[in-house]
From TrEMBL:
Function text: Mitochondrial intermembrane chaperone that participates in the import and insertion of some multi-pass transmembrane proteins into the mitochondrial inner membrane. Also required for the transfer of beta-barrel precursors from the TOM complex to the sorting and assembly machinery (SAM complex) of the outer membrane. Acts as a chaperone-like protein that protects the hydrophobic precursors from aggregation and guide them through the mitochondrial intermembrane space. Mitochondrial intermembrane chaperone that participates in the import and insertion of multi-pass transmembrane proteins into the mitochondrial inner membrane. May also be required for the transfer of beta-barrel precursors from the TOM complex to the sorting and assembly machinery (SAM complex) of the outer membrane. Acts as a chaperone-like protein that protects the hydrophobic precursors from aggregation and guide them through the mitochondrial intermembrane space.
Compartment annotation: Mitochondrion inner membrane
Keyword Protein transport tagged: yes
Highest taxon, organism lineage: Eukaryota
Residues of the Tim10-like domain: 9-69
Protein's name according to its UniProt entry: Mitochondrial import inner membrane translocase subunit
Membrane topology, record value: Peripheral membrane protein
A Pfam cross-reference name: zf-Tim10_DDP
Family recorded in the similarity comment: Belongs to the small Tim family.
GO molecular function: metal ion binding
Gene source species: Scophthalmus maximus
Length: 88
């Protein structure tokens, strides 16, 4: 039977997403927006905020990849310990 995601899990995941989104938005805004004398977003501010978001996304992707690699290595080590894997 496939695992089902409950409504409370979906709400929890959405809250976590919103929290992360708000944190990234606030950090990039604080780092990039310096001039409040105009309603328009200056090109420097726009460029800075885009770079900030790209950097965050790349960092998150890299961390996720390393996390997966670590868990694969841990699972292989446990399997080898249990004698489930042959020698490499």
């Amino acid at each position: 039977m496939a695992a089902q995601v409950t409504e409370s899990d979906q709400v929890k995941q959405f809250k976590e997403f919103l929290g992360t989104y708000n944190k990234v938005t606030e950090n990039c805004f604080m780092d990039c927006v310096k001039d409040f004398t105009s309603r328009d977003v200056r090109p420097e501010e726009s460029s800075c905020s885009e770079s900030c978001l790209q950097k965050y996304l790349k960092m998150t992707q890299r961390i996720s990849m390393r996390f997966q690699e670590y868990h694969i290595q841990q699972n292989e080590a446990l399997a080898a310990k249990a004698g489930l894997l042959g020698p490499r």
